[in-house]
Every structure is written in C-alpha cells, then in structure tokens.
C-alpha cells in the first residue's frame, strides 16, 4: 500500500505553487448504432475492435502530422462491444477559453468517430439501448443468447461483451462469486392496455441450457417488472463523467465530500433512460440497473443467510452510492457518515500504523471488503513501491458516485476526484452544459468554503428519489439549509431570484473593484474554524426537503440556489461579453431543466414512444418505434430536428465552436 503514504506535506504557500493550475477532463461514452432504413431497424454494431483500431491509426497519424498529441482526442474500449469511450487529447485547464472549448471538443470527437464508421453507423450518446435483450435481432451481426458462456443470460449473447479477457472474466466471476446470476428488476410502466398482472411473455421460462436457467421462474423475475439477468445490461449503459485534479490531498478530500450530496441532484437533472429490454420502465435512470448488474455479494453478504463463509454483511453492491465522507477537516461531523459501512480491520490498522488518519484509513479499508474479481497470473507478484496495480484492481471495481483517486506511482498526476453519477445526454450541447455547470460549481464550493454536508442516509434516499419517473416534478430532495461554513459570509448581496445574470455587486465594500482572475484555479484556503465554534444543534436541524427547482434556482430568501452561487463565482472571473453569453446559455439549460420548463431526455423519450403511431399502450417498445426514436435523437443532435419542449433550437447549436 506504498502509494497511500502521504509523505511530507508541503506548507500552504509551496502547495499553492505546485498545484495552482486547475486540470480537469470529461469522459463521454457512445453506443454505435447501425441503421437498416429499408426494414426500419436500429441495432447495436458489434465492431468495437475494428472501429478502435481504425480510430487509433487515424489519431496516431494526426499526432504525427502535428508533432504533438495534446490536441488529439483519444478513444478507448468499454464493456460493451458496441461502445466507445472518448476523452480530450489533454486535460482542460481553468482558462475561460478552455471552459468554452468543451462543447467543440465533444463535437469534434463525435464527428471524428462518425467519419470513420460505415455510412449506416452512428455514434449515439444514449444512456441505454431500448431493445438490448429483446427476442430476435438487436445486434449486427446477430448472435444467439444460448452461447452466453460468461453470463449464462437468457437474453444477451456472449458477443456483446468486449473480448478482452478482463470483461468476460468479470462477468463470469460476478456470477460465480454470487452463487447465481444477477437479478435486475425494474418496475414496469403500466399503461392503458398493459396486461395485469404482467408476466413477461418474452422470458424463455423453459430454457434448460445452463444451471441458472430456472432462476427466473423460481422467483428471480418479478411480476409487473422488467427482468434482466446479466452484467451487460448495466455496464452496457453510457454515462458522462468528470475528473478534477486537486491542489493537494486535503483539497481532494474536501471536494469529494462536498460533491457527494450533489451526485443525486445531477442524476435527476440528467435522467435519460426510461426504456429497458423492449419495455417502458417506471423509472428514469440507469443507476440501480448498473448496481444490480455487478452485485457479486453472496447470500450471506446480502443478509439472506447467517455469516459462515463470508466475512461481512455488506449493505450495497460494489456499484453504489458513497458510504463514507473522507475529509478530516472540522466541517465533517462524524454523525454525517451515519450508515453501516463495514471495513477490513486489519487493513484499517495497517494504514493507521503507516500514518494515515482514521477517516481516510476507514475509506480505504471499506474498499477492501471486496474481493478482486479479475487477477492476471502475471501480475500477482508486484513491487507496490513502483506499481499501484494491486490497489487499482480493487479501486477500479468499486464503482461509486464519486471516486477518490490517489496519484499514480512515479507520475506528475496529482490527487483527483471523479464525479460519476450523471447520465450521458443525447446532444453535445447538453453534455457540455452539465460539464460546465459541475466544474463551475466545484470552484464555487471551494472558493466560498461551502458546507453541503448532510447525512449519508439522506444522500442514499436522494439517490432513490432521483431515479423515479419525472423526479423533477414529483420528488423533493434532502439538502442543507445553510450552505456556508460558520463564519463564512454569503457572497450573495441580493435576494435569490430566477434571473440569468449575476446577482452580486462586482465591487468590494470600500468601492474598490474586486480583482478578477482570468482563470479558474485550484488551491483554495480551507475554511477556518471559528475559535468559539462547536456543534450545538442536532444534524436533523441542518437540512430540509427541497424541490430540484429550489436547490438549483433558489427559494426566495430562504435558500440561494446553486446557480446563484455559481453566478457569484463567475463575477470573480474576468470575462468578455461573448464568454458570458456562452456560459449563460449552458447554465440556462440547467436552470430550465430544474424549473421544469424543459423536460429531461427520459421524459422526452417516454413521450415519444407513447405518441408513436405504432405504440399500442401496452408498455412495449417495438422495432419500428425504436428505429424512429434513434433517427429522431440523431436528428436532434445534428440540429435538423426541433424538439422545443426538450431542447430549444437557439440553445442546442452554437455556431463556429472553435472552428469545429
């Protein structure tokens, strides 16, 4: 565990010099969809290996021609053989031009991928493919699910999985460790003509190929639910992730903690996945699907049997929401980490013996209650002072809403925080808008020493509420009432409103204009603990329930809203009018999603299906509906189809985005 040795911490001034530059990036995942226009059939293309080889050659040639690689995007494999992941060629900095280059960079990556696909193939940013796992043909080429030797699935073939040894081994070992196939059940959206009770006629109830085949009829498949049984249903989903490099370990821990309560809020705002295995589900998000798809816990670990062979009862799947706050600063009261989070006591003590504080040691020891799922024989014996592969083997298979990422060994890369809850959006404008929102919020949080702590149990409840159908209109979410640390003045100088311009006076109290920075930065001083401060009130008095509109846009003079705080932070930056307009366009999308004047992708998709001429109001998404939906989404992304209730035309396409 050598990589966790924190070493000699730098003094504040030295740390500031070393990490003052903000570096951050995004990851966008695509599904490659192939279109048969004659038969009105949209299928998943399983050409990932061939496509990535072509893109790798192209990007290498581009880098060679330019003499550098920084501006050349990269494409990576993902779990599904129909998936591509893209990242910028180099991290964005904190400069305003870099912030405003995100959409152009995303468009460039999509266009680059599209250029080297077949004419009938399109890279689409859909969170879930509506007909993955339906009877018949949903991939190109077609493969029979009877050959699903890793997952033993009733619905999806072996060939949907990336052929690299890691992925089928993960799939098989999750099933073997669990002692059964994974069981994913989403409540079905009950429409006017949906049979009741709904017993899914597409499940091959009598199949008898693998030992787990009877599980569906033995209770794994629930009545009135959409049943799925393989890792591919979850890890075949696409998402939008952001990673921030912090100034130092303390700032990374602080940022991690303060983004934890934001994760379910962003999940609800980006809801984009109401269709599963050919049905309309009564949920809007992917999160519980992915969590169940990699749930390798044994019956003992799930609490179904007394502990005998297993070491712990484990409340959550290894894909789940965060269970512990990790900052050791004074704002993090122990009462906030209020749920059961088992940890390995031997690892906990070893870490403490080597100078790791108990809070961080517990986080790391909590990760290590999980077994490694994939072990390569060649990598068993490693020098942990020169390689962190052993740590990453566990870290990379603990998929949580936030990931705290220590520096790689012998690397200039620093302490990072990965924000993982958001659903990928159909258009690059939306993905850029939410990336811009989150990075600005992260700076506002640090700049104003905000305090967003609420109990983890309430964050978990928010995660459940975020996935419910039309959560923006139907749900309230727990959020902190006073978002500023004790002794920290509010930057808001006027009552909260729903305006789209900055509410703060850009002059200091003595009338001298504030110094404005041209770059967003790292290295914000930590909040100072007032000498007379000590926690007096119970934590139950610190939070309340708010609508998403209130959390984002404010609640009169009771709560400022996150957007108001972002605008206050923007007033500390030196921007020209054009830059302000562009940023306002992105933030306006978030504002209107939250207040309901723009619907989420999930609501738009559900409405599209229910208004389609071929829909029979029986909850079924047939081949024709799926084809027309994919065509419509692609046309919206390319700006040739309007959907004003979802994405007004004047917002969805900015001209001349860095020449892209």
Automatic annotation (TrEMBL):
Keywords: ATP-binding, Glutathione biosynthesis, Ligase, Nucleotide-binding. The keyword Ligase applies. It is an enzyme of class 6 (ligase). Pathway: Sulfur metabolism; glutathione biosynthesis; glutathione from L-cysteine and L-glutamate: step 1/2. Residues 484-516 are annotated as: Disordered. Residues 490-510 have a biased composition (Polar residues). InterPro entries: GCS, Gln_synth/guanido_kin_cat_dom. Pfam families: GCS (PF03074). It catalyses: L-cysteine + L-glutamate + ATP = gamma-L-glutamyl-L-cysteine + ADP + phosphate + H(+). The keyword Nucleotide-binding applies. Its EC number is 6.3.2.2. Belongs to the glutamate--cysteine ligase type 3 family. This is Glutamate--cysteine ligase.
């Amino acid at each position: 565990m050598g990589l966790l040795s924190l070493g000699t911490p730098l003094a504040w001034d030295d740390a500031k010099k070393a990490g003052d530059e903000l570096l951050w990036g995004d990851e966008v995942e695509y599904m490659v969809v192939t279109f048969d226009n004659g038969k009105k059939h949209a299928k998943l293309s399983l050409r990932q290996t061939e496509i990535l080889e072509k893109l790798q050659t192209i990007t290498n040639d581009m880098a060679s021609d330019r003499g550098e690689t920084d501006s050349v995007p990269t494409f990576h494999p993902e779990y599904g053989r129909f998936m591509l992941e893209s990242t910028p060629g180099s991290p964005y900095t904190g400069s305003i031009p870099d912030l405003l280059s995100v959409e152009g960079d995303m468009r460039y990556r999509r266009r680059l991928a599209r250029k080297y696909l077949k004419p009938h193939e399109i890279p689409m940013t859909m969170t879930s493919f509506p007909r993955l796992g339906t009877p018949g043909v949903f991939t190109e080429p077609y493969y029979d699910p009877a050959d699903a030797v890793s997952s033993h699935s009733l619905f999806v073939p072996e060939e949907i999985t990336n052929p690299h040894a890691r992925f089928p081994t993960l799939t098989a070992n999750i099933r073997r460790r669990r002692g059964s196939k994974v069981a994913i059940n989403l409540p079905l959206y009950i429409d006017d003509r949906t049979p009741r009770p709904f017993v899914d006629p597409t499940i091959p109830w009598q199949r008898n190929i693998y030992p787990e085949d009877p599980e569906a009829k033995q209770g794994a498949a629930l009545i009135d639910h959409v049943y799925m049984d393989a890792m591919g249903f979850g890890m075949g989903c696409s998402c939008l992730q952001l990673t921030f490099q912090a100034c130092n370990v303390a700032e990374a821990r602080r940022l991690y903690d303060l983004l934890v309560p934001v994760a379910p809020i962003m999940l609800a705002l980006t809801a984009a996945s109401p269709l599963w295995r050919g049905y309309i589900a009564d949920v809007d998000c992917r999160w519980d699907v992915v969590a169940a798809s990699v749930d390798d816990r044994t019956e003992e670990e799930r609490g179904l049997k007394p502990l005998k062979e297993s070491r712990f009862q484990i409340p959550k799947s290894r894909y789940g929401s965060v269970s512990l706050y990790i900052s050791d600063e004074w704002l993090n009261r122990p009462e906030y980490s209020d749920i059961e989070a088992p940890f390995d006591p031997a690892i906990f003590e070893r870490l403490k013996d080597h100078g790791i504080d108990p809070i961080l040691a517990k986080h790391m020891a909590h990760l290590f209650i999980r077994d490694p799922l994939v072990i390569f024989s060649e990598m068993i014996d490693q020098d942990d002072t020169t390689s962190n592969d052993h740590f990453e083997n566990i870290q990379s298979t603990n998929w949580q809403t936030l990931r705290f990422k220590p520096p790689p060994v012998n690397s200039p890369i620093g302490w990072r925080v990965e924000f993982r809850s958001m659903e990928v959006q159909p258009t690059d404008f939306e993905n850029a808008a939410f990336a811009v929102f989150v990075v600005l919020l992260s700076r506002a949080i640090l700049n104003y020493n905000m305090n967003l702590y609420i109990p983890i149990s309430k964050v978990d409840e928010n995660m459940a509420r975020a996935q419910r159908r039309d959560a923006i209109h139907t749900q309230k979410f727990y959020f902190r009432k006073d978002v500023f640390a004790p002794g920290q003045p509010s930057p808001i100088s006027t009552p909260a409103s729903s305006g789209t311009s900055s509410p703060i006076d850009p002059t200091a109290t003595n009338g001298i204009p504030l110094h404005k920075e041209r770059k967003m930065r790292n290295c914000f001083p930590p909040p100072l603990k007032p000498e007379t401060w000590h926690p007096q009130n119970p934590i139950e008095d610190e939070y309340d329930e708010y609508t998403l509109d209130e959390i984002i846009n404010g609640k009169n003079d009771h709560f400022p809203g996150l957007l108001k705080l972002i605008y206050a932070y923007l007033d500390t930056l030196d921007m020209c009018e054009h830059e302000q307009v562009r940023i306002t366009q992105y933030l306006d999308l978030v504002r209107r999603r939250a207040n309901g004047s723009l619907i989420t992708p999930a609501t738009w998709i559900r409405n599209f299906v229910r208004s389609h001429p071929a829909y029979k109001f029986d909850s079924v998404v047939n081949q024709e509906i799926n084809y027309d939906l994919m065509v419509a989404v692609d046309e919206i992304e390319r700006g040739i189809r309007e959907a004003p209730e979802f994405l007004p035309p004047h917002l969805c396409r900015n001209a001349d985005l860095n020449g892209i």
